[in-house]
User: Fold this.
Amino acid sequence: MDRTENASILVVDDDHDIVNAIAMLLEKEGYRIYKAYNGLEALDAVTMYDIQLILIDVMMPKLDGLSAMMRIREKKNIPIIVLSAKSEDSDKILGLSMGADDYITKPYNPAELAARVRASLRRYLSLGAADSAVRSDTVKVGGLVLDKAARQLYADGEPVRLTATEYKITELLMENAGRVFSAEEIYSRVWNEDSFSVENTVMVHIRHIREKIEINPGDPRYLKVVWGIGYKIEKL
Amino acid sequence: MRRKGIRIAAFLAACTLAGICGYNVCALYLDHPSMYDYNANENSKLMTETAHEAGELEARLWTVGVMYLRNLDKNGKLTGTKEFRQHTEEEMQRLGLMDSGGNITIGDYSNFDYYVSWDGNEISSTGKSLDAIKTTDSFIIENGEHDFTSDLPVSVASIEAYDASYGAHIYVFGGHMPCRRSIVYDFDTTGLPSWYVDDAKYYYKTDGTTLVPDDYVKRNGDYDSDLGSWYDSEGRYHYTYVGQNGSLYEMMDPGNGDYVEVQRATDSSKTSSQVDIYDYYSVTENNRKFVNTPVNTYPLTVCITPKAEFADTLESLRKTEKTEEENIVHRLVETLPFAAGFVILALYLMWASGYNRKEKKYVPGEADKLFAELPLLLLIAAPVGIIGLITPDVFKELYKFFVQYYKSGYMPAFYAAAESIMAGVFLVSLMTLMTRLKCRTLLKTTLCGRIAGALWNRTKNVCTKAANRLALREQLRDDRMSRRFIIRSAAATVFGLFFCGMLLAMNSLPGALILAVIIIGAYVYFNLRDLSAYTELSSHITAMNGGDYSRREVPVTSPVYGQTEKLNSISDGLQTAVEKQLKSERMKIDLVTNVSHDLKTPLTSIISYIDLLAQEDLKPEARDFVTIIQQKAERLRTMVSDVFDLAKATSRTDMALERIDAVILTGQVLGDMEDRIKSSGREVRSSLELTSAPVNADGKKLYRVFQNLIDNALKYSLEGTRVWLALKEQAGYAVFTVKNTASYEMNFTPEEITERFVRGDESRTSEGNGLGLSIAKSFTEACGGKFRVIIDGDMFGAEVSLPLLEEQASAEEAVSVNGEE
Assistant:
């Protein structure tokens, strides 16, 4: 836990004001901040300093964020959060598939930004050891870890308090990550009853779970609603 | 004008000349009644009577000679058997040549002296010898032969005596006698099975005394197949029959009993001087040989001489007649110049008719516009009348008429008038026809021509009108297929009707059928060939409709070449237009994207620094201000995001259509919004009539639509009222409706409210940016649905209709599709 407190973060954006704002925001959280204003500077900073996390913009002069990220990925496995004004799904998928750990769209919510930084750092620093020892009764999806023996869910290393029903739903979806479950299916498997017009009920539970495990429930990272069909937990 | 005067004068002159001719001819008739009435001439009558008398006398003398004088002995008694004498006298009496006392009665022929003798036995009117009676005027038969030197008109044609086969001498009495034959003498029966000559009563053998037994005489003849039989002037028997090959044969007995086939000597093998009308050729065995038999002579003499005073009368009559004939000819010749003048004037009028001096060309007058059939008819009728009027028969009838009702003296005037009127009619007809010929209006002015012309014009008009109405001409100019079809149909019809009709007329039904099959086959083949080209064209259109704008190439000779080329040019135009539109659409998206990025960057800074500011230690007032700025910044953020989304939806990019269930979606939205519904203080009543409503839509977008509509209803409904939500099926559509009671007066139309940035409450003080319904509408339409706003009093309703998919597509499929995401 303590290790995240004084982690070094590199903030890369061609807009100085934004860099400063982020720096001030994160310095208040206790991180050490390095600044860079384009991709090349970012590469220099990564080689010069010991950096645990990078916040990087996409559209920058000289070397754009995505290219810089790919170069950095060649040497280092530190978490990289892409910060971009491009908000389309295709942009997000591109960023994540090129090695980004998270994708935050501008204009961001400062609190959310801070939370995501924290979560990524925690995943990187605290759980890095745990990664190697994967136990059979543990299910892991991205930053979510389900300890089935203890019936406990950890989100980015932090324990989450779930009700019995919520736990069952989470377990079902995590064990079948990537698969879409209809409300009826979830209902019959969790409640063990025949279902009829249960959409509302299931959806309410899903929303509650989302509020507990997601940093931004409006833009969920793990538990997703497939509108008009069902629900799933993304396979990460 | 002068020309016209000349023409009128010429016309009148011609008519007058015709009248003069008519007058002359009529006068001539009146002066010489013999011209039209044979009986009117005393001379002719006398001449005829004389000839008739002479002929009768000759026949009687001849018969007396051959029947009576021939059989007298030196004492003037009849020779032969009693039976023979009795028969002869009986027959003489029957013929009126002998009275009951046995005296010869020649008859009363006071105008003639006559003489007849047979071998010394003679009878004469004066008791004198032949020499005393015979003059240059006499008609004489010597040795049985006629002497035609006399010009006394005597009819002797039917008096015949001749030798027949088997040695028979046969005498045929003349036409003036009561019967043609009575007794046949000198009949040699040697080697003769039977014999028959017409209607003779008795047949005597050559010795002149023995009657031929009845069984020799086979009445009704041996020659049943005869078409006819006769004796020529030399006594040779002829008969004709139809041979087995159907040809007509003429056979002749030359006198020796050997029949030969003969032909009349009409060919050139004999010179004309050698031939008389009774010469025959034998054509037996293809050898042409002149058959000649000697003509027997008889010791018969007949002489008839007109008495001296009668001869004088005849002579004077003959002279009078001759004078009259000369007179008639003379008068006719006198008339000829008038006729010639008429002809010349007629020719002049023909030449001059119709010429207009002013216009220097031929111009048809009013009369030349009448139907030409009338002058044509008159042109034929007038000469018939002109010539007919001067024929003897017509004159005779007219003469009778005039004598009966008027006076014959009126006739020349009538003739003059009638002839000149008819000549006038003839000339007028001739002139008008000539004028028409010169003006080339003859055919046009005939009734037939005009009817034909009118019919043709009518037909042409109808066709033209029909063609105009159909605008066929324009259409067919480029439409080679239709043009070919029409031409082909017409050709097949005409060709088929003509030739099939001809073959049928020639009674060749199989030929007509074969031809019909060939024509129909060819017609169908060519039409099918064109149809295949049309099918290509059709597929071209279908492809274009499906978005394939590539060019199609067809050969220049193809019937759809023109159409294909037009389609190609349409394709090119469309393709350009589509490309242009796509380009502009892309540019628009790029613009919106760039603008939204440019807005987002400063917005990011604003939000960041406000957040930092909010963490500062501020005075309470300043904190309130920061809070307001924070709210507005947040609203700006949503707005920028919404505008971007809206632009994308309008251009239909970034759409992920898949099979989703509207029922599930509704439940999910309601569950998702449960907290907001609760906090709003409104109640949501939902009625989902369907258990599943599969539609093809982008789930995220449709979620935004439903969310926006419910959100809207919560925001703008009157406190304490209920929001009604329904999902039902309607005519193949899944219809999602949200209804609420508005908290304000809705003074806008459904169209206005779905415009961008239009809000129900004009003050714009409340939350929301006016894009909610606009986004709902755009997203619905991007999903292929229909969006409708219903305003009824204070009731506000929004309706989303999406086409329902068929049920059978399994949910599994939908799941697997999503599983890949």
Summary: Chain A touches chain B at residues 15, 17-18, 21-22, 24-25, 28, 59, 85-90, 106-111, 178-180, 182-183, 197-204, 206-207, 225-230, 232 (CB under 8 Å). The CA atoms of residues 182 and 229 of chain A lie 6 Å apart.
